[in-house]
Design a protein that fits this description.
4pyrrol_synth_uPrphyn_synth, Rossmann fold, alpha/beta, about 260 residues, about 35% helix
């Protein structure tokens, strides 16, 4: 990794490659140099069960995606069904974040709610958006570390709204044991690190443990940014001061926080 630009921003996230990552593109266009360090691995589970549920997609008011991984699992499961595109387009689809919405749209879903930014706000959006709906069955594919915020908020309205959430775990998140090699590479760059951006609360413990090995990346010398309030809370639990929190998981929110 050769770094010649100023202001290095390190993204602790998984997913896209450096060539097509929207966050890296946004950083570059605003004069930053970005670098991704994957801190989580994933593998898909329960796809047979999920496939059976998707065959009954027309029985649901909506399907909810809070991560691109859930959409990827849906793509794999849909490959095993004969679900027509018209049915996919007829079911409401709620998402968190632009990346998740775009992935769902590629499968044919017509999305809404992506600007809410997190599961709690999305669940409130669903409640308000479904005010007149008679069917309140919701399909929610998610990961094994998914917080219960969305389900709890929807079920809290059950007495009046009669929401019923079918939650199915479609992928497992595996946190890497150590990222020392990746962090060491960053410390060898030609410019100092300006900011570290943590995308998931699950990766906070390993990041905290690893940073202790690199005093040049102490919380007093670099900015720590969190994506969403849940990640912010996890960082604070580990006594890591948060410089800024992205309220929405999108590149512009990152730029806004860096420039505040």
């Amino acid at each position: 990794m050769e770094i010649q630009n100023s202001n290095l921003v390190v993204l602790f996230k998984s997913g896209t490659t450096d060539d097509n990552d929207p966050y890296l593109k946004a950083l570059e266009s605003h004069g930053y140099h970005g670098h991704c360090i994957p801190i989580l691995d994933f593998h898909f589970i329960n796809l047979d069960l999920y496939t059976q549920l998707l065959r009954k997609l027309d029985q649901y008011l909506a399907i909810v995606f809070t991560s691109p991984r859930a959409v990827q699992a849906t793509r794999l499961a849909l490959n095993s069904t004969d679900t027509p595109l018209l049915l996919i387009q007829s079911v409401k689809c709620y998402t968190v974040g632009k990346a998740t919405a775009l992935a769902a749209q590629k499968l044919g879903f017509q999305t809404s709610g992506e600007s809410t930014g997190n599961a709690e706000l999305l669940s409130q959006f669903i409640v308000e958006d479904s005010e007149q709906a008679k069917n309140r069955e919701v399909l929610f594919p998610c990961g094994n570390l998914c917080r219960d915020v969305l389900c709890e908020t929807l079920k809290a309205h059950s007495q009046y709204k009669r929401f019923s959430v079918t939650e199915v775990k479609v992928y497992e998140t595996i946190v890497k044991d150590d990222i020392s090699d990746e962090i060491f590479m960053i410390t060898q760059s030609k410019v100092p690190v300006d900011s570290l951006v943590m995308f998931s609360p699950s990766g906070v413990p390993v990041l905290t443990k690893t940073l202790k090995k690199f005093p040049q990346l102490s919380v007093n010398s670099v900015k720590i940014l969190a994506v969403g309030p849940t990640t912010e809370g996890e960082l604070k639990k580990h006594n890591i001061p948060v410089y800024a929190t992205l309220r929405r998981p999108d590149p512009q929110s990152l730029i806004d926080c860096l420039q505040k």
